[in-house]
Amino acid sequence: MSHDLEAIAAALRALPGVDDAAVHPDGAGGLDSLRLDLSPGADGLEVAGAASRLIRERFGTEVDTAQVHVVDAQGPTQQGAEPKVPAQRASRPEIVRTDLVTAGHDFSATVVLSSRSRAATGDARGTITPQGMQRAVGQATLRAIERLARDSARIELDTVVITQAGDQRTALVTLTMLSSHGTERLTGSAVVREDESRAVVRATLDALNRRLEALLA
Predict the structure, then answer these.
(1) Which of 21, 112, 152, 158 has its CA 20 to 30 A from that of 1?
(2) Does the pLDDT of residue 74 top 70, yes or no?
(3) Helices 196-207/44-59 angle, 10° precision
């Protein structure tokens, strides 16, 4: 199916959080992939989801996560840096920022979480495949949680899958957590609203929901 690729690129450049956009053809007049350059402070997962939704609703074609390459012009958050955030009354972690960066066949995810007045950054790398991207996002989320917990536990991502039931997709994750209380297997889930990667972050937090208060105390 042929598309007006320049019209798609122009529409993407008008999205909030996008500084520039490039659309790469597949050689048959169709859409192969997108490159989105983020504005400072923009959330990569939110921008990717908005881009996919715009292309589906306005141009009538689907773009999966592996086709959207989001680049943060500032680069990933510096390892070890803890962004300052407003104080929160709840200790349960909130998502401050998520970034996706691609380079060749490599993919990196950065997830920033906050709890009360503290924030922590987690990073992970993978390959540009749906499974590789999902695992990188889950692992980055866990690294951020470990830093919030001041390394009082080690948590490994065992599995992450996106399931389909009717017209609803759900992210499912299983984790193994090692702490002073021993080893535990945990499971979490989250409905995919717009973007699979953000659902993976929420499912990872859901798996740890009952353990977070003790970890972050």
Answers:
(1) 21
(2) no
(3) 140
**What's the residue count for the chain?**
217
Q: Could you tell me the end-to-end alpha-carbon distance of the chain, in angstroms, rounded to an integer?
A: 55
Domains defined along the chain, listed by start: 5-72 (3.30.360.10), 129-216 (3.30.160.270)
Q: Per residue in 27-37, is it b (16+ CB within 10 Å) or e — as a string?
A: eeeebebbbbb
Using the predicted structure, report yes or no on whether residue 159 has a pLDDT greater than 90: yes
Beta bridge partners of 191: 170
Please say if the pLDDT value at position 78 is more than 60: no
Cβ-contact 63, 55 below 8 angstroms: yes
Confidence band (pLDDT; 50, 70, 90) for 77? very low
Nearest alpha-carbon partner for 202 in 179, 170, 180, 176 = 170
Q: Residues near 167 by Cβ (< 8 Å), separated by ≥ 6?
A: none
Query: Pick the residue with more confidence: 174 or 115?
Result: 174
pTM score: 0.69
198 membership: H or E segment, kind and range: helix 196-207
